[in-house]
Amino acid sequence: MYGSLRASEFVGVLAILVAGFALPFMLPEYFLYTGNMLMTYAVLAIGLDLLIGWSGQFAFAHIAFFGIGIYGTAILESRLGVPYLLSALASALIAGGAGLLIGFPAARLKTVYLALATYAFAECAQWVFRTWDPVTGGSDGLRFNPPVIFGYETGTDGAAFPVVAIILALVVTATLYLAKSKLGRHMCAIRDSEHVASASGIDVRGIKVATFAISAVFASIAGSAYTLFQSFINADVLGASQLVTVLTMVVIGGSSSIAGVLLGVVVVGFLPEILRAMPHSLLVWQEFIYGAILVAAIVFMPQGLWGLFRQRIAARPRRHDRSARESPAVRPVPETSP
Questions:
Q1: Residue 71: other Cβ atoms inside 10 A
Q2: H or E element: which one contains 208?
Q3: Rounded distance, CA 150 to CA 120, Å?
Q4: Under a CB-based contact definition with an 8 Å cutoff, are residues 23 and 39 in contact?
Q5: Residues 6+ apart with CB under 8 A from 96
Q6: What digits encode the pLDDT tens for the residues 267-292?
Q7: d(Cα 145, Cα 150) in Å, to the nearest integer?
Q8: Per-residue DSSP letter, 142
Q9: What is the pLDDT of residues 106-119, one digit of tens each?
């Protein structure tokens, strides 16, 4: 039914929750840390995909909202004693408000002009994080205490893993319902053609601004999840390389698809582990390898790995169609007169 989750979608969300509560008892600490990072990247990439894959807005301000979520949650929770959930909510509201402010002028821009304007905002935000010493700690970074949620302390990777899984499950669920909503359909209509969407009565500028705000909230939620298993943040983490990593996840996995984004997060997230197993002389080419993979994905897989997988499934002939083609034609039996 329209507006409700399908069985496969419900199973997928349930699988995230089950893995979040079961894996801490099965995996060592390093793998749990990697899992926490991948789930945080997943929330961040889903928010970026709302802009790029859903509404067709090639914007680069996403990493700034991620930083607002990290610094806002850490400062409110550690320095001011605000509970974690309220700190995360306040940070999301601040990021959403910043997304609205950026969205109004950015909604008038397109293509490379939009990319440059939003990238400039991300660079300005990183400059603030690096130089506002009394608040963010400046270039020395900011150290904060592990959050405590209703008496549950999340100082270790194993303790934070189920909480981060819950956050990811909630974000995936919200995105699935958004995809089935009127707002989600309007986003996709703008992506396909702004002129047709406007002629159909869709408020193109209003939908773009709303998409910026929702994407900013998702990025802030990812930042709040980051503070669950980390105790230190430096502005260097919020640079262009981080943005390229998230963008690579979306493009390689497949934009405008939650399953594709999650697949891209897993593939790109484990790529550094694969590179570490290569000869040490090749590690200096790590950034080049990322760029080459991104270019190859755009050229040879414009719909990402998930789109390629769906094309292969769709092109596979069905069993009854294959049997019908392979069986000899049945000729009608001529009638005989009595």
A1: 26
A2: helix 204-226
A3: 39
A4: no
A5: 213, 214, 216, 217, 220
A6: 888 877 776 666 666 666 666 776 77
A7: 15
A8: E
A9: 888 887 888 888 88
